[in-house]
Structure formats: structure tokens, C-alpha cells
């Protein structure tokens, strides 16, 4: 099935030599996707500030343009032209490189996400593997930021980063395995086509684990340890201002957008939808997932570091293992009998496991004798 | 080969999101675990006790407003009671009731802020605080009707209160009294069973009963540790003996109990205000006192159950128009004596939560 | 209702138990000899029918020719209250024994009195300035501080 | 592996003594108030030509999305938070993201009494803020020491330590007063130009 990009390249190669057509098509594709991503990030910044306002019974920014549409543009422009302060004893290179290492992987994720029927930048047949690989690079960037800015609070945040993102990488990858088992291939377009019944219904436990793991990966509430502003002042980006801080700020929202897109593609059936055009369905699902993330941020308090780790290792990891085993067994026998039987067993499995785990494990009472 | 680790001294400095003002803690950390803690205070020391020695008794009332700026009415109430006790001045009935209504409304407002910012320290992004602020704005409107100011009221005088309540005050107060229990149920329903709140506060920062008494803790911090000691019941001042209300007492003395005691105290305060509004008599609101007021030589120690604990005023007068010495007993400073023992062994996140559960106000600590 | 114990009876009882510890009785308070303060404090705290386990307030007053440190004690069990006073006439380096190990409530209050009034509490584990900064000259709450 | 040659960390005592010295130096140095940066007043009259579009765009962005730095010291802090709360919401002006780190903040609202012990911290944080920064002195205590002016430990006015742009009188000033102060800051920003910063 030819994606739009390949058709465009075929049309170009008629007029230009092979390498030129390939190059131009690639660049145009990148610009289109980047354009889409950055505008969506700007809209999401506005959307979150307004939604947070709604949750906190106050009006969000509404002075610039109708309903404050131009507010994020003013914010972004202001942050960009602010003075760029580099602390004197900071490790210059690491300090300068950190925002790039955080921001670029976020954009790379969008290469594999099928935005609409044929609109995918690179239809890799190892799409999911690419996602996982790129997703964990930003942890290094955050650690570089924490270490590079020579600030005690940032250092604590850096330590917490490595612990949190590494330990949540495992449940996220294992729950992805559940999806890959059901689809039978790693390619993202095949995943979307296989989702006659969206996977959130087929394997609720897998979705739950992936969603919680994704929350921890993009350090949003209730796992937002990294820039826990009530404890470690501004976390890893305490010493950043100006352009570098803008990249962190946009990076954070980019991460949220990236994971929202991944969740819609893998669990909510990407662009599949009955009546509306596919691209609109994709946008609706992404905005729905993002609203859920903002809703969690507005309400839930934060977990402590050791409770976070206990939740990952004692809670999500074993559940993900059991989930893969059950899905594998289902794929062998049950799926030929009827799809709805699989759904029923998975829902029962989810309920039983969650109840068992909530009884068995107590999240760390951790008072260390000193 | 043992890896030599070095303790890591962190300054939770005077300007920090959750030190509730300018409080500094020099924390020695081993990784995330707190090994030692030394509070450093005095960043808001304005020398109120020295200034009080050069002001007449009535001029000191605005000074007391700025002590615990979350409970200005109660500060006025405590100071004015001490002066009347030394001067033997009798206050008319209506003024007594007005004082009780204002003091209890202030307690609700202060506890709302305490619980709100406690949740904020736990990480809930400003949302609980803003909902509790909605109630506090109602109380501030009531105070604004009475004395025209939102925060520093300067409402009470030696011998009564400065102004009578306008006629739209009582209907607004009645509406507030009917709504408030429903709002408190809403908070309890949303917060008391919140899984993450329970996990973060149950058993954290325990202040045992004996230590609480030994460090002279008072108010919700003492009652959460299981000591049933409330000055409104133990040593009833003004007309508190005419109202019936319970004193909520915690069991283990951990952060959750301090949060729970404050929520229950809000309910009891609404009951007191309701009874006071029913029994509010007519009559004049202030006894004519010859200005400038001269108190007989002598000394007095008047104490009041402020929202944060036992607020005491030790007043020594030598017969002149200004007090010879005025000492203010700061409940929050003394509640902080055991902060070091409560925090050692816990992590940074718990340090912030435990400090938030003690509910300090720097204006009162540093005076 | 908190019963403030009658000073004469307590003074009589104290002079029986610890002869020579009471100096005089001024109506609301009992003035104790400075060196005997710790014994009186331990006695009042330990004795079953007093049991003053709660130090409500500790402060100091400068009466120009002597300093006076005032202790307001409360017994939570019997609901009694009592006021103790201790005087020191030496204006250059007034010293009073510290009661921190008897009532830990005195910790910050003694440091504050040292900081603002200049009275040294010997036996206090960490006697430093509490409110003012280290380089501050003088003790503001003294009457002779300009 | 032992880490030798590590000079012993300063004990708590001499850290306090160092802090005391710093406070005394600052106290001696700041006897005279610093002049308010009101250079933009004259510029308005001289430059009656239209603002260059770049100036206008930059000033528009800067004034419409100020990140305030929470610097609450005393009672005024609670009126500042009340301004940010639901009733008098300054999020409408794009100021709903309260940055705690001075690096990312551009408006420092000093709300409350500044004591000499706190003065070095105020000065340090002002210097840490990134360049286009403004200061609001909120409340009588920040403007002139207020009711505690003659006390031995209170700085008689924030402008002794930090150049102040807008003074918001009141003790504590009502949230509407603070919002008016913020509007004045907007007007000041709109009339600046990049060249003459």
C-alpha cells in the first residue's frame, strides 16, 4: 500500500534524478510532520492552561485574541528572546547539549506515527521497536541537564530521573509486547489495520500498564518527581532560561503529545473510525488522551520516590508479565473461537490482578533508621 | 572496599515553594534520606516586642494583626483579653458574642489554608488550595463587611469591638453556615480516602504523645498526638463555656491525624458560630474606656486557643500608658521544636510533607 | 477551669521539701533562688500531686537593676498552672541554669531570650542566636539598648 | 576508594558567621535608595514616531506573558496568592505559570517586610534573574518599611537593595491594587525598545 510520501516521490522521480527526488520528498515530508507537531504542541499548551483553569474554577488566559488563542505564541516568543544564563561553574558542553538531547527524540517519534490513511513518514516494519528505542533517549538528556547545571536541586532531580524512567521502561515495553502479539507484526500501519476492535477493549490490563508507564516516562502527575516544584524547586531545568528552557518547555509538551499519539495508534485504533475522515478521528483521540493526562495532573497528589519504584517493580512489572503470558495463550486457542471471549477473559484477568495486587503489596512505608 | 559516601548538605532556603514563608532548613542528606536538620529562622524578625514597648495599648492592636497574618482576629482577641484581664474591664454581652463569631470564622479560614497548602506540598497542583480559597473568599467578604479589610482587621478594641455588624452580615453568615458543612463533606469525600494521600501521610512524621507534651506543642499538633488539651475547654476564656462542641483528638500523631484533626475542628467551629448567631443579644458593643488607657502596675499571662495552638500574651505594666514588657508566646515556634526528631530517617518528599502538616506561620515564629 | 495554685501553699511545700530554695512570694509568682532552679523544676515535674509536665511559656524581663526569667508551668493531668521567677543581678554576663533537659519546650525559647536579652543559659546544648544574625551587636530587648 | 584531599566542609557555625558578615556589609552599603529605572518616561515624549514593529512585537510578547517569581515574605504574600486564586485571577493576563527558579521568571513581586537578614537573599535572587526583569514592591513594608520602619532589623524600603519599577501601596494592598500594578508594568514594557535596554 503506497503511502502519500512514496506517491509524491514517484511523481517527482519522473522529472528529477533518483537521489534528488528522494531528498526533496524526504525534506518536504519532514517539514509537513514537524509543522503539524509544533502547531499541535502550541495548541496543546493553550488547551492545557485553559483546561487547568477550568479544573481550578478559574478562567485560563483569555486576554489575547478570542479565548486567549495567541497566549502560547506570546509565551513561546517571550521565552525565546529571554537572556540565556549559563551558571559559571556549570559544565558548559553538557549544559548546552542537554536540551537538544531531550527535544530531538520527541520529534523523532513522529516519524513512525500514522497520522491518517496513508500519511506516515516512514512505514518501518519495526515501528514499535523504533518507538521504544527513541523513547528512552530523553532520559539521558534530562540527566545531562541535571548534572550540567551544577545545582544541588538539579542533581537530585537527575538522580531521580534515571531511577524513574529506567524502572518504568520495562512495564511499558512488556505491555507493548501484548499489542505486538495480537497484531503479529511490529509495523504501526498493520497495528492500526488489525484493530477492528480497538486494543483498549481487547486487553484493558495492557492499556492500563502502558498508560501508567507512559505517565511516568513523560513525568506527568502523579509521577512528576522530576520537576516536583514543591520539593526540588524546578527540577532539572532550574538553571535553564531563554532558548534552552523553551526547548525543555516545548519538549515536555512534545513528550505528552508523542505518548498521546502512541496510545491512540496502539490502543485506540489510530485513524480508524466510522463516519468522520480518518485524520479527524486521530485528532479527536489524541485530544481525548491529552485531556485525561491534564485531568490527572490537576487532581492527584504525587508519589514519593521509593513508592514510585515499588509501584513499578512490585506492581506494574509482574502484572505486565502475566498479561503477556495470558495474551499469548489466548492467541493460540481462544482467538479462533471468538474475539469476544478474549475480551471477557482479559477484563476478568485485569480485575482479579488489580484486586490481588492492591491487597498484597503496601507501597513502601520507608522510614530508614539513621 | 567500602564506597565512602559523603553527606550532602542542602539548603531548603528562605525562598522555597513550600516553606510557607521565609523559613530555612539546613538539611544534611544521605542520598534522599534526611540525616540531620537544623531550622534557621529570623528572616522575618521585625522586633514587634521592642516596638510594642513604645506604643500605647490601643496602638499595639494593629501590631498584633501582623503576627500570625492568617489568624489576625484571634491575635487581636488574645491581646485584648490579656489587657482586659489586667485592667479588670468588663465587656458587654454583644461584644463577647461578636468576638466569638469572628474568632471561630478565623479558625475555619486558617484551617482551610493549612489543609490547602498541606495538599499543595503533597503535589496536588494548586487545585485543592483554590477550592478551599473559594470558601476563604466568602469568609473574607464577611470580615470586609464588618471592618473593611481583607487580611489585617484591627477589629477588636480594649473593652469591646470597634464597629457593629451591618444588617446584611447576618443573612450572609447564615448562608455560609448552611453551606460550609456540605463543602467540608466534599473535601473529606475527595481527600480523606485518596489512595495517594493515605500512602504519603499515614505513619509519616509521627510525634509521640510524651514528646508532644515535653516540647510544649499545642493546638492541632498536640491533639493529633492523642492529648485532649484545648484551652477553650480546659481554661474557658470569654464565654466559651456557653457553647457545646467536641474537641477532636487524633490517635497516632502522624501527618494524616493532623490533617484529620483540622478538618474536624472546622466542623466544630461552624457549630459554635451557629450557636453564637442564635444567642446573639442586642446592646452596645464597647465599654467607654478613658483614652489613653493606663493599666495598674502588675503582670498578667492571658492565653487563647488560636488556630495554630496556644497563643499567649505575657503583659507587664508599670502604670504608664505603654506596656513595660509584652511577650508573645508563638505556638508555631514551639511546635517546631521536635521537627528534627520527626523528620530524621524520612526522605526529602516527606520532610516537605511533615513540615507542611505542622502548619507554621512565619510572622508568628519570628515576631 | 485551670486552677492557678495558691503561691503561699506551694512556697511552703517547696521550703519543706527543698529548704532555702524559695526567695520570696510575689502575688502571682514564686521567686526561686537561681542555683536551686533545676532541683525545684525536677521536683515540680516529678512530684505526683503537682506533675507540671508542660512548660507553657518562658520569657525574660529587664527591670534595669536585675533580669527576671519567668516560667509559666501547666500540669495537663491536674489542670494546675503556676508561675516561677528567677532573678540574676549581674548585668554584664547574667547566667541562669538551663531547663532544656527537663522540658524540651525551653529549647527555642531560651535561645530567643539569649538572643534578644543576653541571658546565658548554661547547660543549653546549642545556645546560638535564634532570630538575629551572628554579627549583630548588642541585645535589642534590653532597656539600655538604644 | 577514599576521597582524600577534600577540605572539611564549613561547620554550621562559621557558615552563620559568614552570613552575618555578608548582612553587615550589605547593611552598611545600602544606606541610600537606588534610583528607580524610569528612563522610559522621557523616551515617550522624545520618540513620538510609531514604535518599530519589531519593538512592538517583542514588547507585546514580553508584557502579555510575564512569569512572576513567588517571593512572598509576609502578609502581602497571601494577598498575592489571592490575586492568583480563582476570584481575582491573573492567569487571564497569562501569568498563571508561577516559576520558582529565578532563571525563568521575569517579574519579581517582593511582598512583605524585608529584614536585614533577608536582604542578601533578595539581592542574590534579583541578580540571578535573567535579563529583561522587573520588580514590584508590594505593600507598605516593601515600599518604606511600613509599620515596622523604625525597627532595628527592618530594611526601610526595597529600593535600598534592588531597583524597583512599580510600588503598590497598601497594607496589604487589595488584589485589585496588585492587578493595577501589573497593568502599569505592562504599560512600562510596551514603551521600551530593544535598542536602549
Verbal overview:
- The complex is a heterotetramer of chains A (370), B (367), C (146) and D (197).
- Chain A contains 15 helices and no strands.
- Chain A has 370 residues and is mainly α.
- Chain B has a three-stranded antiparallel beta sheet. Chain B has a three-stranded antiparallel beta sheet with strand order 6-7-8. Chain B has a two-stranded antiparallel ribbon with strand order 4-5.
- Chain C has a domain at 3-90: NADH:ubiquinone oxidoreductase Nqo5 subunit (Beta Polymerase, domain 2).
- Helices cover 23% and strands 30% of the residues of chain C.
- In chain C, strands 1, 2, 3, 4, 5 and 6 form a six-stranded mixed beta sheet that branches. In chain C, strands 7-8 form a two-stranded parallel sheet.
- The longest helix of chain C has 12 residues, at 106-117.
- Chain D has 197 residues and is an alpha/beta fold.
- Chain D has a domain at 55-191: Rossmann fold, CATH 3.40.50.
- In chain D, α3 packs antiparallel against α7 (175-190) and α4 packs across α7.
- The N and C termini of chain D lie far apart (53 Å).
- The relative contact order of chain D is 0.17.
- Chain A binds chain B through residues 52, 55-58, 152-153, 156, 159, 221-222, 224, 228-233, 297-307, 363, 365-370, and chain B through 8, 10-11, 16-18, 30-35, 119-127, 130-131, 134, 194, 196-197, 199-200, 203-204, 344-350, 352.
Strand order of the largest sheet of chain B: 1-2-3
Question: What's the average pLDDT of chain B?
Answer: 91
- SSE sequence of chain C, one letter per element: EHEEHEEEEHE
CA distance, first residue to last residue of chain B = 52 Å
Query: Which secondary-structure class do the elements of chain B indicate?
Result: alpha+beta
In the predicted model, the low-confidence regions of chain C spanning at least 5 consecutive residues are: none
Total beta-strand segments of chain C: 8
Reported by name, the CATH topology of the domain at 3-90 in chain C is Beta Polymerase, domain 2
Shape of chain B: globular
- Number of separate helices of chain B: 15
What is the number of helices of chain C? 3
Give me the count of strands of chain B: 8
Order of helices and strands of chain B: EEEHHHHHEEHHHHHHEEEHHHH
Q: Which stretches of chain B are poorly predicted, pLDDT < 50 over at least 5 residues?
A: none
Can you describe this structure in just a few lines?
The complex is a heterotetramer of chains A (370), B (367), C (146) and D (197). Chain A is mainly α.
Key features of this structure:
heterotetramer, A: 370 residues, mainly alpha, 69% helix, B: 367 residues, three-stranded antiparallel sheet, 15 helices, 8 strands, 47% helix
What is this structure's SSE topology?
The complex is a heterotetramer of chains A (370), B (367), C (146) and D (197).
Chain A: H1 4-15, H2 18-55, H3 71-80, H4 92-109, H5 127-135, H6 137-148, H7 152-183, H8 188-194, H9 199-202, H10 204-217, H11 243-267, H12 278-299, H13 305-332, H14 334-337, H15 339-360
Helix pairs in contact in A: 1-2, 2-3, 2-11, 2-12, 4-5, 4-6, 4-11, 6-7, 7-10, 7-13, 10-11, 10-13, 11-12, 13-15
Chain B: E1 8-12, E2 24-30, E3 33-40, H1 48-52, H2 60-65, H3 72-87, H4 93-122, H5 127-147, E4 156-157, E5 160-161, H6 169-192, H7 195-201, H8 209-214, H9 220-224, H10 231-234, H11 255-278, E6 298-306, E7 309-317, E8 325-329, H12 331-335, H13 339-343, H14 348-358, H15 362-366
Antiparallel strand pairs in B: 1-2, 2-3, 4-5, 6-7, 7-8
Helix pairs in contact in B: 3-4, 4-5, 4-11, 4-14, 5-6, 6-11, 11-14
Chain C: E1 3-4, H1 7-17, E2 22-26, E3 29-32, H2 37-46, E4 54-62, E5 67-75, E6 80-88, E7 95-97, H3 106-117, E8 120-122
Parallel strand pairs in C: 1-6, 3-6, 7-8
Antiparallel strand pairs in C: 2-3, 4-5, 5-6
